[in-house]
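Q: Hi! First time doing this. I have a protein sequence and I read that you can turn it into a structure. Is that right? Here it is:
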Amino acid sequence: MGNRVLIIDDDEKLRKLVHEYLESYGFQVITLPDGSLAMKTIEAELQEFSPELAARERWLVFNKIDMLPAAERESHCAELAKRLVWGGPVFAISALAQEGTRELCEAVMTYLEQQAAEESDLAQATADTEAVSE
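A: Yes, that's right. Below is the predicted 3D structure, encoded as structure tokens:
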């Protein structure tokens, strides 16, 4: 079986058209009408692929936020996060308009630095334990 593709769209005719097209090229296609069902599907796929990866922290990033009127952005993102029952960090960005990208990059760097520090602490603790047992 070919690669898997997840199509999320509320237009049933469009989902069916894209499903048939991609399937004709050998893709295994899953179609869903909304994002909340998609999250459950993605989590199940991730758990099957790698339970360790599935247990890791995930972030929700809304891209192309500049496509929404400025007055609606925050409430729209909050509503989507609520519908997804999202408990992790949420970022709203527009790469084109350079909105929110600095905050996202800074958060990624902070996260990576914390991970590196934790790995270093773990390596040091392991080395200390090995030295004591010798």
